[in-house]
Amino acid sequence: YHITTWGCQMNVSDSQRVAIELEKMGYAPSADEQSADVIVLNTCVVRQSAEDKAVGHLTSIHPMKLRYPQKVFALMGCMVGVKDAAPLRARFPYVDVFMPPSDPAPLVNFLHARAADEGRDLIQHETQTRYEIQDEFRLPSIDAGNVSAHIPIVYGCNHVCAFCIIPYRRGQERSRSIGEIAREARALAAQGV
């Protein structure tokens, strides 16, 4: 797999969680998109330049999808948002999976369904509709050895400030439990973070 991330610390954290889920399924990180079976673009729309980069990148990798149709393209983050992705599906029909922020489940479900159609088994695990930490929280192999990591406390926002896009892209506020956050912090500390 290969993940490209634009934007804030939440996007970095979301990309890390997608990587964790992909590694649980048996995928390994790739240094480049050409050698990856799964390509994830995690997007930001807070500034126009970030959205332009994502659209430009999507356009530039379209020929790769035409040449290698078995590659899985996933688009996630604030460009997708929490509302219907139909306009994006129409604009980028070669993208296989559209994922809202903080939610690796659509990609995991797509990969499991594709593997089943091909008569293959992927390593089984449960993925929640919203990512929830498991007792065996592991950093993805690409981040092994990092001395810092992001631990989300809350997803989304309810404040609806005059010029803020976050509630419209990341949805309503959803807090994580103290126990879940503490388990994740302990697991990260045990890995040297």
Characteristics:
193 residues; two-stranded antiparallel sheet
Describe what this molecule looks like in 3D.
With 193 residues, the protein is an alpha/beta fold. Helices cover 38% and strands 12% of the residues. It contains six helices and six strands; from the N terminus they run βαβαβαβαβαβα. Strands 1-2-3-4 form a four-stranded parallel beta sheet, with helices on both faces. Strands 5-6 form a two-stranded antiparallel ribbon. α1 (9-24) links the parallel β1 (2-5) and β2. It is globular. The model is unreliable at 127-131 (pLDDT under 50).
Brief digest:
With 193 residues, the protein is of the alpha/beta class. It has six helices and six strands, in the order βαβαβαβαβαβα.
What is the strand and helix layout of this fold?
Elements: E1 2-5, H1 9-24, E2 38-43, H2 48-67, E3 72-77, H3 86-91, E4 97-99, H4 105-117, E5 154-155, H5 166-170, E6 174-175, H6 178-190
Parallel strand pairs: 1-2, 2-3, 3-4
Antiparallel strand pairs: 5-6
Unreliable parts: 127-131
Shape: globular
Percent helix: 25-40%
Q: What oligomeric assembly is this protein in?
A: single chain
Radius of gyration: 17 Å
Structural class, please?
alpha/beta
The count of helical stretches stands at: 6
- How many strands appear in the DSSP assignment? 6
Main-sheet strand order equals 1-2-3-4
**Mean of residue pLDDT?**
90
Describe the sheet with the most strands: 4 strands, parallel
Tell me the distance between the termini.
Answer: 23 Å
Order of helices and strands: EHEHEHEHEHEH
Fraction in beta strands: 5-15%
